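User: tokens in, sequence out, please.
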């Protein structure tokens, strides 16, 4: 099992930037593929981005493509999500997850507790 702790969320104005981090511990030696998801109030959890084990492949939801960038530092067991040109509709709790290179939440084994991102207009 991998333990995941997100950080970096907060309140930002539209057009601003934030960088989320996800620190992994536990069974990290396998460097699993990982992803970011988000969930807004009253909505289902939705896919944001995913990255392969060594970071060579990435895939994004259309809604964030060209604005967000997922990356990882395996030496630090940390996953990142750089978010630029933020919009009010990006407001959500953001979760990191480990175990798959996929856009489906059910493919992932381990989840963090989430970090709130609020974008004001």
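Assistant: Sequence out:
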């Amino acid at each position: 099992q991998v333990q995941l702790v997100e950080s970096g969320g907060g309140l930002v104005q539209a057009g601003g930037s934030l960088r989320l981090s996800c620190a992994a511990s536990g069974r990290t030696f396998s460097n699993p593929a990982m992803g970011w998801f988000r969930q807004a109030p009253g909505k289902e959890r939705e896919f944001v981005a995913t990255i392969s084990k060594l970071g060579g492949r990435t895939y994004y939801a259309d809604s964030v493509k060209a604005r967000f960038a997922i990356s990882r530092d395996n030496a630090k067991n940390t996953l990142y999500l750089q978010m630029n040109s933020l919009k009010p509709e990006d407001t959500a709790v953001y979760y990191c997850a480990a175990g798959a290179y996929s856009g489906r939440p059910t493919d992932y084994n381990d989840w963090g507790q989430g970090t709130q991102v609020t974008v004001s207009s």
